[in-house]
Amino acid sequence: MNSKRFAAIAAFLGGLAVVLGAFGAHAIGNKVSAKDLDTWKTGAHYQLVHAVALLALSLYDRVGKYRIVCWLWLAGILIFAGSLYVLVLSQVRMMGAITPLGGLCLIIGWIMLGVQLLRSNAE
Predict the structure, then answer these.
(1) pLDDT over 70 at 122, yes or no
(2) 3-state class of 79 per DSSP?
(3) What rounded mean pLDDT belongs to the chain?
(4) Which band of pLDDT confidence, cut at 50, 70 and 90, is reported for residue 108?
(5) Would you call 65 helix, strand, or coil by DSSP?
(6) From CA 4, how far away is CA 9, in angstroms rounded?
């Protein structure tokens, strides 16, 4: 996937994060427990932060040097935030077992970005 598509996906994920944050606050805020609402907010927050990071990186990365980081962040957003949304809506607590896999994708993406940036400065 090229950087333009990653940028477009990031923009849509950012907008969706705002929609889902509002949905959590206004549509389900009084229908779920405070803990579940906090879980929902965590998903929306991480989705928005990483959508912005994905957008910035994809606009910076004109040659595809950081494509693996973009893929990791995209997978991380979908798995981390997505599993939290499903957990809250379905009350299937097993979804919480999937969430750390998404977090791991996000963490590895950040580490790989740092390593690649250090390598590019050394060249």
Answers:
(1) no
(2) helix
(3) 95
(4) very high
(5) coil
(6) 9
* Dihedral sign from CA coordinates of 7, 56, 43, 1: positive
Q: Which residues contact 120 (CB under 8 A, 6 or more apart)?
A: 65
Q: Is the distance from CB of 74 to CB of 55 less than 8 angstroms?
A: no
Q: Which two tokens stand for residue 82?
A: 């997505």
Domain ranges of the chain: 3-122
Instruction: Give burial (CB, 10 Å; 0-12/13-18/19+) of 57.
Output: buried
pTM exceeding the 0.90 threshold for the entire prediction: yes
Tokens of 27: 């549509």
Give dist(CA 98, CA 54) in Å, integer: 22
- The tokens 């750390």 sit on which residue? 100
Q: How many alpha carbons fall within 13 Å on the CB side of residue 84?
A: 27
pLDDT value, residue 15: 98
